[in-house]
Specification:
Blueprint: H1 3-37, H2 54-57, H3 63-94, H4 99-107, H5 114-125, H6 130-136, H7 148-172, H8 176-184, H9 189-200, H10 202-217, H11 221-226, H12 234-244, H13 248-285
Helix pairs in contact: 1-13, 3-7, 3-10, 3-12, 7-10, 8-9, 10-13, 12-13
Length: about 290
Amino acid sequence: MTAERRQKLVTALLLAPASLWFIALLVMPLVVVLVFSLGERAPAGGYGGGFTVDNYLNLPARLTAFTNTLTLAPVGMVLCLLFAYPLAYFLAVKVSRHKLLLLILVVLPFWTSFLLRTYAWIILLSGRGIPAWLAMIGIEDVRLINTPLAVLIGIVYGYLPLMVFPIYVSLERLDKRLLEASGDLYAGPVATFRQVTLPLSLPGVVTGCLLVFILLMGEYLIPQLLGGGKVFFIGNALVDLFLQSRNWPYGSAVAMALVVIMLVAVGLALRWARRQGGQQQEVSLL
């Protein structure tokens, strides 16, 4: 056996356990969902066999869930980015002392239950919380709970740390000499940020956006608690179809549609990121 074949064999053996776990835990469940989505509902609920595409043709019946998800998930992602970038920039560039303590404070909410933190927002957004405080200063009849705004507040609060840390890592690795060189070339703070800081931190921005967006597409708890059943996400539709209606084939079709939407969105985002990276490389070579 040649050295090249021996190396390929060792590589295959090292990758075999991870590949088997990948097939067992990701590919096979998707295959099962795909098979279910082409079947029919049993009389008592569940999967009843058969072959039909009616479940996919009936997807517009859940158009509200798709519309809410495809609207609020990107908006929530953008809001997380707008709040996370200044915070990550401050931690990575401006803070020199107590940086570890501040990072711990950012991740501190994850030390308790996500359910309890969301319930806390129910109290804050209900009539005895923020609306009551606003009424004290003359701003009355403000309704926050069970609205899209409440869902967005819960999204930003719950997913902000997941956006902060990838951006922080990119900014932390940023060569500070590039910022000094930009200043030496008479570039102002805005121009330095636009031409140096933002392009070099783009990998962290893309990673944080993808991480938050993918999780938001399957979000169930925040719309259920803060939306009060009035702001319906695809995750809520799946729970209803699988656990209450017990229409497993239709629920599987909705799940497969969600997977396709996420694959397309992630593929477009990665393609754009690679294009931006190529442009930056060309500029650096020039």
